[in-house]
Amino acid sequence: MEALQTMGASGQMQLASTVLGFAGQWKEGNEAKAAANFRASQLEQQAGQSRAAAQREAIEKRRQANLAGSRLQALAGGDAVELAVGIAGEGEYRALSSLYEGENRAVGLEQAAEAERYSGSQRQRSARFGAITGALGKGATMYDKYWPKTNLSFGAPPSGAVAHNGTPTGYR
Asked: How buried is 166 (Cβ within 10 angstroms: 0-12 exposed, 13-18 middle, 19+ buried)?
C-alpha cells in the first residue's frame, strides 16, 4: 500500500491502465475463442443438414426410379424386365451420388469448423501472450520510474564480502 502512495496520482493511473489493458486483452482473447467456437458449431450444424438433405435426395431418387420401373412394367408388360433393371440401377447410382455429394459437403464444413476452432484458440493464446508481455513491460517501466535502483556496480565490493580463496575482499 505504501508503494501506491509513493507513486502519486500519475503512477496510480499508469498502474490502473496496465491492469485494465491486461484484463481487456485477456477478455478479447476469450471472446475471440468463444466466437470461433460459435462459428464452428454453426458449420457443424450445416454439415449435419447437408447429410440430411443428401439422404432425402437419395430417397427421392430411389422413389423416382422405382416409379419409372413400375410404370414401364405396367405399359410394356413382361418384356420390360431388362429395361426396368437398368432404370433401377440408374436410380441407385443417382441416389448414391447424392449421398456422396452431401457427405463431401459435410466433411468440408466439418474441416472448416475444426480450422475455426483452431484459429480461435490461436487468437486467444496470442491475446493472452500480448496481455502478459504488455503488463510485464509496463510493470518494468513503472518499477524503474517509481522504485530506487539497487546498486549493481562492480566497483567496490559490499562490506564483509569474501573472495573465492577465503580472504576478505577490499584487502590487498
From this structure: exposed
Q: How many CB atoms lie within 10 A of CB 109?
A: 21
Instruction: List CB contacts of 107: < 8 A, sequence separation 6 or more.
Output: 47
Domains in the chain, number: 1
Give first-to-last CA distance, the chain, whole Å: 46
pLDDT, residue 148, reads 65
- Tell me whether residue 2 is in a domain: no
- Yes or no: say if 97 and 62 are a contact pair by the CB < 8 Å rule: no
pLDDT at 141: 86
Give a yes or no: residue 102 inside a domain: yes
| 8 Å CB contact between 88 and 19 | no
Task: Give one DSSP letter per residue of 66-118, joined into a string.
Answer: HHHHHHHHHHHGGGGHHHHHHHHHHHHHHHHHHHHHHHHHHHHHHHHHHHHHH
Note down the domain range covering 27: 10-146
Indicate the pTM of the whole model. Answer: 0.66
- Cα angle 49, 42, 51; round to 5: 15
- Is the pLDDT at 172 greater than 50? The verdict is no
The DSSP output letter for 158 is P
- Residue 131's closest CA among 30, 13, 9, 10? 30
